[in-house]
Amino acid sequence: MAQRMRAVQYTSVQGGLEKNLRYTEDALAPQHDEQMQRGDHVMVEVISASINPLDWKMPETPVLGKALTYSFTSAASIPGMDYCGRIKSTGSTIDSLAIGEMVYGRLTRPTSSGTLAQYVNIDPGTCIPLPQGVNPDHAATLGIAGETAYRSIVPNVQSGDRVFINGGSSGTGTYGIQIAKLLGCHVTVSCSTAGMELCKELGADQAFDYTKTDVIAELIESGKSGEPFDLVVDDVGVPADLYNESHLYLKPEGKFISIGSKNDIRSLAARTLPTFMGGGRRKSEQVHVLLGSHRDDLVQLGRWMADGKIKAVIDSTYPLADAAEAYGKLKGGHVHGKIVIRVGAKQ
């Protein structure tokens, strides 16, 4: 008889993923299938997971989302990409991970068998041994948000650079502030009034309250005063003209990193077309963690966390049965840091 497990599932996204999630204790557990026997995967018993906008954006995307999250073995799909847990079983050729070992990481893409479940099959390439002393709830937030922040900043700065992070109190933004400061950068952020204190506690040197000031005007004033930025990381996607006006506050050799930017025709044209065809005047790059697996990034993030150089900012924690409520909160905005779902027991 097939093993059953606890999970949250959905069979439709009509009206939004959060309105369709259902908690069950009778979901079909993943099997030690041919992939695992070939050594391609390990099975993890999930302790904690964190949720991301990708969890709903992908299944709610027509055609592509359905193709990626369709299940061939069940009528229902399970969301979630980030996790921390313990190894339940491994493929026959895997000798780098031991049964019972604590690990953290993320799935390489959204699938129908996500991490908001008691058990999940994981690609060992993004399955990282948990450093001693790191809280599983905290490690569970590193996968998408931590790695996105790492890829946005680490390859693009040197000590002394001026960095602007649009959306400093977001999950990616809170890690971005800490990473940029760790690398010796001057950091300016945008956030709401409620996020100002948090961003400054994390190390931000300057913060613009987008509810009270025109962020683009403040950035342009920085450029005029002789303090343009070396790097801009847009975690939010608004204001809409942030990139179009970047030549007024970003150095000629600077770079504009898009994470939360909108991908409508106008925005894509501005970021990709040559200037004479209506494109922007500064180099633009979109960072997406689904484009390849960078195991070393996740390893470094875990080391920094173990050493106390970065920390997880957890907005709230929910039991697995209340995952729908958690997604509703995340989708509504104004979340500071990450939302964690407690799937199983730590011990």
TrEMBL record:
Domain of life: Eukaryota
SUPFAM superfamilies, per the entry: GroES-like, NAD(P)-binding Rossmann-fold domains
Domain Enoyl reductase (ER): 16-341
Entry-linked SMART domains: PKS_ER (SM00829)
InterPro entries to which the protein is assigned, alphabetical: ADH-like_N, Chloroplast_QOR, ER, GroES-like_sf, NAD(P)-bd_dom_sf
One Pfam family cited in the UniProt record for this chain: ADH_N
GO molecular function per UniProt: oxidoreductase activity
Gene3D superfamilies associated with the record: Medium-chain alcohol dehydrogenases, catalytic domain, NAD(P)-binding Rossmann-like Domain
Protein name, UniProt field: NAD(P)-binding protein
